[in-house]
Structure formats: C-alpha cells, structure tokens
Amino acid sequence: MRPSLEQAIAAVQQLPNLPSTTRVVLGYLNDDDADINQVVQAIARDQGLVARVLRIANSPFYGLPNQVQTIHEAVIVLGFSNLRLVVTAAMMTAQKFPGLANGVEVQRLFRHSIAVAICAAAIGRSNKLNPNLLFLTGILHDIGKLALMATFTAQYEEVQSLRASGNLLTIDAEAQVFGFNHATIGAALCRHWHLPEAIAVAIGDHHSFGGDDDLDPSAKDYSAFAEVIHLADAVALGLNLEADPLAAVPPLSERGWIRRMGSHEKLNIDFKEIERLYQELVVLIDGHS
Q1: Which of 12, 33, 84, 283 is the most exposed place for a label (fewest CB within 10 A)?
Q2: What is the pLDDT of residues 206-221, one digit of tens each?
Q3: How many CA atoms lie within 13 A of 279 on its CB side?
Q4: Average pLDDT for residues 138-145, to the nearest whole number?
C-alpha cells in the first residue's frame, strides 16, 4: 500500500536520531575559523567516532611511519576536509539505516554522493559560496533514498524495477510508486536531525529545476545551494564515476547554469582533478568504513 507523504515523513523520523556529538563536530568542521582543540574535544565525546578516526588515520592510505595515538594527531593527519567525510560516513551506516539489504546499491549511492560533493565544492568556490557546507550537502543530497530504502523496502524495490524496465529517472519512478520523491523526504530528515536549514532547503529543492527554462525567473526563489547541488548532481551522473549501469542525467536547468556559471559553455572545474579526488576518497571510505 502506498504511504502518504505525511506517513512517510513520520516513518523516516523513527529512524535513529543523529547524535548530538555528530552535529557539533560537523558544525565545527564547516567553520573556517574553528579551533582544532574544539574539534578534538567534540570527537572525544563519542568513543565510536574516536575509534573510526584513529583507525583511518593509521590506515595504509596515509602510510605514516609511526602510529597515530591521539585524536589531536589524527585530526592533523586527516585534515578538516577528510575528517568531514569520515564523520558524514559515520552518519550513513547500516546501523543508522538498519533495513538496508542491497549493499551494492547503497555503495553506489554513497559513491555518487562523494562525486556530487566534490563537484558541488568546486562549483561553490567559483560562486563564492561555502565549499565546506556544499561538500557536506553533496554527501547528504540523496539521504532520502537511504531513508526510503530502509523504511519502505518493498516499495523501493518496485522503484528500482521501474527504473530498470521503464528507462525512468529515479525521481520519476519514485513519483509513480510513492507520489513524491526522495528529495522531499531527505529535507524532512535533515530538519528532524537539526542540520543547518541551508542543507535541508538545498536537498529538498535540488530536483526542482528540470524543465524550468521557460519560466519567469521570479516564479520561484530557489536557493543558491540548491542550484549548485542540482548542477553538481547532473555533472556527477554524467561522469558516472560510481559505474551505475542505469545512471541517467536529469534535465538540466539552463537558468540555473547561467546564474551559477555565467555564459560559459564549460564548467570552470578540472574533471581530471575531480576524478583524482574521487578515487582517493573512495579508497579512504571503502577500505575503512
């Protein structure tokens, strides 16, 4: 039976809440003026996070001659950018979404999210928008998919079947099965977790641009972050770094492109650099999650 939007939001809000420690750590990591000692003290309150951070800092990925033994050393080794990814990955584990069964699909989803995060940060820098917050938003932009997969497993399997057999975009398949899409659910979940409103708005609106090119520019006041995530999502899907055989680029907002990229026909970002960063981050997360 198809749940109403209200029922779906109520259901995903029953998922385990975001630990207050995680919110505090992410808040510091998104502040360019954050004191490293504040970050260290915040991480130290969560022993699970401490273990994960130390494990990754001591991984072969960094190849350090001596073992990292303190959180302070680990934060220095990882840097705020990698640490932000580690903390966010801790949010998106099977423990938080216990109903997830399709490991391959979840892995693809997280890899796509990494690609979107990298693209969003790059576009954000050229638009003088906070690249750190955009990176986090990119990582979380499809969190509604995870929530729906975990909460309405059978219905989401139907979404995947429709997507495969009907050559449909995910949001169109979701609309057929649920009557709404993962962006709306993701925004509701971010608000339930008390994440910054800019993230919730961007996640909720990042699929609201396709086919808008003939609209009056004043028809809707889309957020700058939502436009960036919309563009980054399309770029990441076009690159298909996660190797999804069903990956398809959604309709791209020409108006959003012009507002974010000006009249340039090409993105002012280095695709080879994006791929390099992507491969590094995937190794970091896949090998030590």
Answers
A1: 33
A2: 988 655 444 444 444 4
A3: 6
A4: 92
Separation of alpha carbons 109 and 26, rounded Å: 21
Q: Is the pLDDT of residue 248 over 60?
A: yes
| 8 vs 19, more confident | 8
Chain position carrying tokens 């989401």: 156
The whole-angstrom separation of Cα 208 and Cα 273 is: 29
CATH classification of 98-289, choosing from 1.10.3210.10, 3.40.930.10, 3.40.120.10, 3.40.50.300?
1.10.3210.10
Kindly report, as residue ranges, where domains of CATH 1.10.3210.10 are found in the chain.
98-289
Rounded Cα distance between 76 and 23, Å, is 20
Q: Return the structure tokens found at 192.
A: 């339930």
Range 6-33 average pLDDT: 85
